[in-house]
Amino acid sequence: MAWKALVVAEQENGTVRDATWELIGLAHRLAGEAGGGAAGVKALVIGHGIDAAAAEIAGRGAAEVIQADGEALAQYTCDGYDRAIEAVAQAEAPDLLLFGHTPNGWDVAPLVAAGLGVPLATECSAVAYEGGRPLFTRKAFNGKFVQVVDMGGARPAVATMQRGAAAAFAGTTAGAVRRIDPRVATLELKSRFITIRKGEAGGVDLSQAPVIVSGGRGLGSAEKFSVVRDLAEALGGQVGASRPVTDAGWLPHQHQIGSSGVTVSPKLYIAAGISGAIQHIVGMRGSGFIVAINKDGDAPIFGVADVGVVGDLFEILPALTRAVREARG
Amino acid sequence: MKIVVLIKQVPNTDSPFRVNGAGTWVDESNLTFGLNDYDRYALEEALRLKDAGRATEVVALSVGPERAATALRTALATGADRAIHVRDDALTGADPLGIARAIAAAIKDEGFGLILAGLQADDDNYTQTPGLVARLLGRPCATAVLKIEPGDGVVRVERELENQRVQVVEMTLPAVVAVQTGLNEPRYASLKGIMAAKKKEIRTVGLAALGLDAAAAGGAGARMKTVRLSPPPKGKGAEILSGPAADVARELVRRIREKTGVI
Known about the structure:
The complex is a heterodimer. Chain A is of the alpha/beta class. Chain A has 2 domains: 5-188, HUPs (Rossmann fold), CATH 3.40.50.620; 206-328, TPP-binding domain (Rossmann fold). Chain A contains 9 helices and 17 strands. Chain A has helices spanning 18-33, 51-59, 78-92, 103-116, 226-235, 243-247, 278-284, 301-304, 313-328, and strands at residues 5-8, 11-12, 15-16, 41-47, 64-69, 96-100, 120-130, 133-140, 145-150, 157-161, 176-180, 191-198, 211-215, 238-241, 268-272, 289-294, 307-310. A 9-stranded mixed beta sheet of chain A has the order 9-8-7-10-6-1-4-5-11, with helices on both faces. Chain A has a 5-stranded parallel beta sheet with strand order 14-13-15-16-17. A two-stranded antiparallel sheet of chain A has the order 2-3. In chain A, strand 15 (268-272), helix 7 (278-284) and strand 16 (289-294) form a beta-alpha-beta unit. In chain A, helix 3 crosses helix 4 (103-116) and helix 5 (226-235) packs parallel to helix 9. The mean pLDDT of chain A is 94. In chain B, helix 2 (68-78) crosses helix 5 and helix 3 (96-107) crosses helix 4 (129-137). In chain B, 28% of the residues lie in helices and 28% in strands. Chain B has helices spanning 37-51, 68-78, 96-107, 129-137, 191-197, 214-217, 245-260, and strands at 2-6, 9-11, 33-35, 57-63, 82-86, 112-118, 141-150, 154-160, 165-172, 175-179, 202-205, 225-230, 239-241. In chain B, the strands form 2 sheets. A 9-stranded mixed beta sheet of chain B has the order 9-8-7-10-6-1-4-5-11, sandwiched between helices. Chain B has a two-stranded antiparallel ribbon with strand order 2-3. By secondary structure, chain B is an alpha/beta fold. Classes of the chains: A alpha/beta, B alpha/beta. Chains A and B meet through helix 3, helix 4, strand 7, strand 8 and strand 9 of A and helix 3, helix 4, strand 7, strand 8 and strand 9 of B.
């Protein structure tokens, strides 16, 4: 049987999300490795009234787009999407079933895997074929280790892929669109979409800041955050934080940088007392120049930083603040 | 309404981590263990619902080796009413689907209204057990939940999306809810709680009692296997500066000026 990958596309109000193009790019690369062809790259897009999104995906990498379109699928629900995906996965019997590691992707992928009775590899940064089998690379222990998993020959091998795991497909295709009725009725579902809304509005917009100084768990308390604030002020920058800091209430949630917070790409990013869990790194690795200060020389943050200092941030930060003030006169 | 909280005992994050001899996981011999951080939030949410008179019983459940009983004891000391420990030598090497099958079998006849869990575990970071359990039980599931509001036969939750947005979802009970950290402030066990926990029940069950065997839920039937575990590649890696703080600071200023022009 010819090799086949099924990419679960994501769209919101008809707009295809960027993670989808990366998944399609990945599927094209793997088609080559697995001895398949571009004809084996298929996508499933779910929603209601999404003809334009389906056509766009068929034009940007998918040999065939399966458009599961129905009123009950107009909004994301865990069981509605699960049923649609399971039904298509069973009919198509792909070798790979790929999701983005997004809030909806990680929500529904386990349901699908359990429904199909196959294992799931989550938040993967890479996939490669070795000896004819796909091996999935991911982080474990919050980034302290890289784990490579084998799926025991399961078909499909199901995975959620981290953003940036592959380059987006850049070519154009003349793929087909096949519209199906997955026969999901709202009445049968055990979850109901109510609304999507913005969380509490914040006074800071870190996404546009040219300089960000971030503090992590290593600061120890809200009071001690002043060393981070002082440096940010000296540099004319903003204050950021990793999740443990905002969870502990040392700073409001609007300051949180990472997969569940804001994604930033300033010219200068200084991380102090942040070990560098993958959830934080995906939110800041696009920064121009990264400085990391941490007492643990093995902290994963040093893997993405340009320059690092292994030491006590309560000595380094004040010294750096003084040096910046001197340099600026 | 009865609530079960799925908890996992994980190595403390400041443990001295080393890869084991086979290169497939960490060497556990020098690690210290504690309750998974996310699970503390799930437990706290369950205890708050009980404090508010909206839950009648809070049960803590863990799948793990003998040492996992310590985590269950912590949950009991914090306020859970009783605990279930799924323990079986055959579970060594089980994959997430196997673990989920054991959990589903252990809770299916207990009549729980809510099945609470943490979004992910701090060791394997798998982020999938709650969803697997939900599908095996044929129940709905919401993940990365920041707010839980039970109603009559339903629960309304807020799921965290990107860019500070939330999705509000209503689910028919029983339902599985995997919480995000930060949705509450977890309490710690009091001395009184620790004393009271000594009298509380931890029921230990093996796979056979759950109608399962090693092929269905244990290591023998596991399909997902870790081929290798290694420290992250150094990649470009940071150039490490060292010396007295004032010298390091001046060198940093020089580099920042050269590379970014912000000073």
